[in-house]
Automatic annotation (TrEMBL), chain A:
Coiled coil: none annotated. The keyword Signal does not apply. The chain crosses the membrane at residues 12-35, 41-61. It comes from the Archaea. This is YdbS-like PH domain-containing protein.
TrEMBL record, chain B:
Keywords: Membrane, Transmembrane, Transmembrane helix. InterPro entries: UCP026631 (IPR014529), YdbS-like_PH (IPR005182). The chain crosses the membrane at residues 21-38, 44-63, 191-211, 217-244, 352-373, 379-397. This is Putative membrane protein.
Amino acid sequence: MNRLHPRVRLLWVARAVLTAAVLGGVAGGVQFAVAPPWLPGWTPAAVFAFLAVVGVVTSLLRYRVWRYEVREDSLYLERGVFTRVRTVVPFVRVQHVDTSRSPTERLVGLASTVVYTAGSRGADVSVPGLALEDADGLRERLKGLAIRSEGEDAV
Amino acid sequence: MVRSLSPLSVPYRVFQRGSGIAIALLFALGGGFDLPVVGAAGPFVVVGLGVVAATALVGYEVAYVSRFSYELTADTLDIDSGVLSRRSREIPLRRIQNVDISRNVIQRVLGIAVASFETAGGGETEAELRFVSFEEAKRLQRELGRLKRDEDATAEPDAAGAPAGPETTELFALDRGELALLGAFSIDLRVPGLLFVAVSTLGSTVVPQYLTGAGGVAVVGLGVAGVILLALASWVVGAAASIVEYYDFRLVRSGEELQYERGLLQRYDGSIPFDKIQTLTIRDNPLKRRFGYATLYIETAGYGGGDGRSRGSEAAIPLAERDRILDLVEELEPVGDVDFERPPKRARRRYLVRYLFVVGALAAGLYAAQALVSPSIPWWPPLVLAPLAVWYAHATWRHRGHWLGDQHVVTRNGVLRRETKIVPYYRIQTVIDSRNVFQRRLDLATVTVDTAGSLSLGGQDAAAVDITGERADELRTALDARLDQAVDAYRAGRAGIGLEADGTHAETSGPEEVDAGAVTEHVGAGSTERGGPTSPDSEPVADPEGADETDETESSGGNRSGTDETESPGDGQSGIEENG
């Protein structure tokens, strides 16, 4: 079982803090504009702190849970903090494989590998937080395996 | 041979596009308004403009029809179209999911039809021929089926040019009684919405005048009458709509295709190749279960035929007796006897807690209302629902189940809208095992089987809900392994999906070995017609666990007995048809 690149924690924590900051800002804006008398002045800070702590803890837990494995004939993923999801993607069903890098991912030098199937939840299967060369490697490996196990497609 | 559209499509297209313009013109003329620049000559200018527009329209449509050509070659459908910007398309025949023909009343009078070709990609119809003669559309549908078969079987094409067409057997026809029953049970829920919009726009000016003059009792009476009228209207509209839609519904098996026809005013006529069927869904509700009826949806990966409503489920059998549905299922997908495995008992406790929680929440809500709004509001009425919650929890548990067959995984969920999904192993795309916090506490899991069927876009995939964690682990590996075997078997010359060979349609009894496990050799009755590499057969794929090496269950109704609705809880025996 492979784990994600440890640096992905940085990415996820940063995202969580950013989200918390935005929502805290919204709370601050509401506080400033409406100023309901029953709302204590420290609410925005509390909102920010609460969301940030929750977000950071979930991010760290998420990293601890995330696993993936390239098996003999399928890709296996395990993830999810609250809902634990295990996905099996048989290589025969792989339509194509992408490597995608969002701006934030590029900033920390990571990439995601996205696996598409013809299923109705096709784009659900993506492996985030891989070092670029790992992502490309995974992509190539999946591609090779998918080609090798090519069959009549199911649709 | 390159063909073009029917010449009759010019007048129809002109009529279709021009009617709007004509109405606008009529309004302009009838209103007799003065154009500021031309003054009294206004009507003439309008008529002149109309003539110009009509000429342009006719010219465009003539050009469109004459510049539109299509050709059915041995392995592609080529379409060249466009007046100003040209577009050439080649659609590989084996990518075409189904061919639909639709024609409304006017088109039927003119003898023309719309032929649409669906592929799996994208959200819309791949190609449409507007319009060809009905005979031509039927010919295309037939030829396409034939060419695909030839391509698959690599047989030499028929020497005789005139396709005799494969023999057809009627699988299902909706009789009058069922149609009437379907109408009786159809309530169009859009009617209240539409009426509400109409009333809220018109009514706001009209109603208050009447209301001020009327007393309180009259208002209440009026309201009750309105609600009754509304219900009646929804019912009438719903009944009319479903009768119009499903009038004279027939499902015919023609070679390796399923063909359906339906409709009173607008007639639909489609074909679905067997090897494109993704899943079968049997849906029912307590009422239908009580009287032994059910609905069947046949899913392909293509976009739905006809209109957006029947998306991805071209051949839905709207209502039929359960036995007939099950016979048909057996014909399409020989599932055999289904013995559902229920979730463990602790799952039922979970449902009980869940529904009691809802009851509690309702009571708490009312209690809050009592405290905050008015002390006259009683908080206890939701508690009356508690026994109902107990019953519902039990029913939820009882109706839930999954089963692994030789070739299919079958799941069943839901009480008020119970769905039994039949997924051939060969159609599995991904297997997803998810466990949320509450499920983990009880060591339960939900295993979802994702397919390419387009009905599952609504998140209603086949799923074995609340099974034990251990079983979920087993299921995950088993499904993966069985998919592999199904793919191997498919490559070795048989599809994991398709028709049971019978006397008239013996397909193949190829001796290919499937790895591992015992394969019950299928004995095809009669001679083998085609030994083609992909002719559908239904030989059971070897069971990885070697669990049941039963003889192949044929589609005869012999082993199906308990179709009656028994509400006795906890009876162990179950088939698809089981309801207990």
